[in-house]
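Hey, can you fold this one?
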Amino acid sequence: MTQTRPDPSDLQRARQARLVGIVLAVTIVLWMGAQWLGGQLGLEVRYVFLFDLLAIAAFVWALVVTYQIWRGRRG
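Sure. Predicted structure:
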């Protein structure tokens, strides 16, 4: 059996997909922690809303990168 090396573009897409997964997991954990901590400390709504906006920004970034990965696989 002959083993072939993966295509460099496949390796790049795999790295991007791994990064997206890590960003999503960390974002979810940090967002949930911020929501809990905000409730415990009685933070003002504007600060809690800031955490929400940061999480949304991370989710949008992950969506854009995932779309780029998908488009790269099709092309």
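The chain is about 85% helix and 0% strand. Let me know if you want another pass with a different chain boundary.
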